TrEMBL record:
InterPro entries: FAD/NAD-bd_sf, Lys/Orn_oxygenase, NAD(P)-bd_dom_sf. This is SidA/IucD/PvdA family monooxygenase. One of its GO terms (molecular function) is monooxygenase activity. Its cofactor is FAD. Pathway: Siderophore biosynthesis. Keywords: FAD, Flavoprotein, Monooxygenase, NADP, Oxidoreductase. Belongs to the lysine N(6)-hydroxylase/L-ornithine N(5)-oxygenase family.
Length: 432
């Protein structure tokens, strides 16, 4: 009987396993259907960097002395000094992925090649059926990530020339002399455009970058914005009324969904050097304010029908390839089907989380279902990000053990998001 079974070994559950590995508190085992650890391998583009600092790794924020922190990785790989000389804080996604794969090789009880098919509840424990075996666990943690979001209007055309960006590194194709449309103005769209500019898939004849946003908008990385990615803000967010939570998440969109300034600069510098200085024909077409509405097969390719919200006009582009950088969405995993009637789902069918990332369900008093990457609406914008993953992992372990295995106390944030009720009303003085 396991104390905790982890479903999925992406970064978030790997972080929990890494912290469990630091203690002898619980019997655990984690499962993943992949043959080995891989971080969004279909999107591991050669020119792609992190949006977050390397110190926001699996463990450092909670156990800086851990053997599986990013700095230990650098030392183990004998490149500590050269890394420092690069003077970068946003490392490549390839390096972070390699780091996590290295960490996974050092953490025990990780079962790869063992996807979870179903989870049942049997009175006082869960029965987990994997591709290989059947396990019993008192508690589980769901960490199987999100699914690619494909807008309804494009589904009928999916195929070798129209596909979601998350598969781009898994497929064989050639953009040489082709017209390519990238739909989506977030970081993934930007990363694909940047790699296409460098002819990674051959030199396209035309490259259209379609974004619904009013411009190619930067990630908000300002000092005070970073306060949204702190435990104290997350705790405060959890207490807010529903309406305030929705308003906060909407207002903070660019703090998590913008494009890094570095990436935007790289694209701009390319345009300047190639199209201004070298005088090359301009083959990148930047199309913000456009909503791609329909894809119709046309002349061996596709007619991409867009609505330009700037002048309220219809525009049609011809493309041979259409790459959908249209993001990811949460869906209830199929392996939860046997438990579905016991879950207290929200009106839109999603999981509802309590403070300790534990799912509201019928037998919550006896057995816990934790979920990571599922709390955007309950815990705020840090939830789908790496920023607080080590803290969240520790919080889950502390809750599960009923002890302060990890000390999560902190000095006070600079911003008073709310004042404690006991605080005396401020005395306002009128300036004369
Ligand atoms: C391209 C990209 C770049 C990102 N870069 C950053 C960044 O720089 N900074 C940042 O803060 N955030 C970033 N994010 C957001 C976030 O950190 C990642 O999406 C992160 O991978 C989420 O981790 P996860 O563990 O929830 O899910 P995932 O990484 O999706 O992992 C889920 C795992 O579950 C496994 N699985 C699925 N179904 C089953 C099953 N039935 N049984 C067993 N296993 C299963 C999958 O194989 C997978 O390994 C990025 C996201 C993307 C898509």
């Amino acid at each position: 009987m396991l104390d905790l079974a982890g479903i999925g070994i992406g970064p978030f559950n790997l972080s929990i396993a890494a912290l469990l590995n630091e203690t002898n508190e619980l019997e655990y085992r984690f499962f993943d259907n992949k043959a080995e650890f891989a971080w969004h391998p279909g999107l591991l583009l050669p020119e792609a960097h992190m949006q977050t600092c390397y110190l926001k790794d699996l463990v450092t924020a909670v156990v800086p002395t851990s053997r599986v922190g990013f700095l230990s990785y650098l030392v183990d790989k004998k490149r500590f000094y050269r890394f420092l000389s690069t003077d970068i804080s946003m490392i490549s996604r390839t390096e972070f992925s390699n780091y996590m794969a290295w960490a996974a090789s050092k953490i025990k009880n990780l079962n790869f090649n063992e996807g979870v098919r179903s989870i049942h509840y049997a009175d006082d424990h869960f029965v987990i059926t994997t591709e290989q075996d059947v396990y019993q666990a008192k508690n589980i943690c769901l960490g199987t990530g999100k699914k690619p979001h494909i807008p309804e209007e494009f589904k009928a055309q999916l195929g070798t020339k129209v596909f979601h960006a998350c598969e781009i590194m898994d497929r064989e194709f050639d953009f040489t002399n082709k017209r390519v449309a990238v739909i989506g103005g977030g970081q993934t769209g930007a990363d694909i455009v940047l790699n296409a500019l460098h002819h990674y898939w051959g030199k396209p004849q035309e490259l259209y970058w379609i974004s619904r946003r009013p411009n190619y908008q930067p990630l908000d990385e300002a000092t005070f914005t970073n306060e949204f990615f702190t435990p104290q803000y997350t705790e405060c967010f959890f207490e807010l009324p529903e309406l305030s939570k929705k308003r906060e998440v909407k207002a903070q969109k660019l703090a998590s969904d913008g494009i890094t300034s570095e990436c935007l600069k790289q694209i701009y510098h390319y345009l300047y050097q190639h199209f201004e200085v070298n005088g090359e024909r301009k083959w990148l077409h930047l199309l913000p304010n456009r909503t791609a509405q329909q894809l119709t097969p046309y002349n061996d390719g596709y007619a991409v029908q867009c609505y330009n919200s700037l002048n309220q006009s219809e525009e049609i582009l011809d493309a041979d390839y259409v790459i959908l950088a249209t993001g990811f969405e949460s869906v209830l995993p199929h392996y939860l089907e046997p438990l579905k009637s016991l879950l207290h789902l929200s009106k839109d069918g999603s999981l509802q989380l309590d403070r300790h990332f534990n799912v509201q369900w019928q037998h919550q008093a006896d057995n816990q279902i934790y979920a990571v990457n599922a709390g955007l609406s309950s815990h705020g914008i840090a939830e789908p990000q790496l920023s607080l993953m080590a803290w969240r992992s520790a919080k889950i372990i502390n809750h599960l053990t009923g002890k302060n295995v990890f000390d999560l106390s902190e000095t006070q944030n600079f911003i008073d998001w709310t004042l404690p009720e006991s605080t005396q009303p401020l005395t306002l003085t009128t300036a004369v």
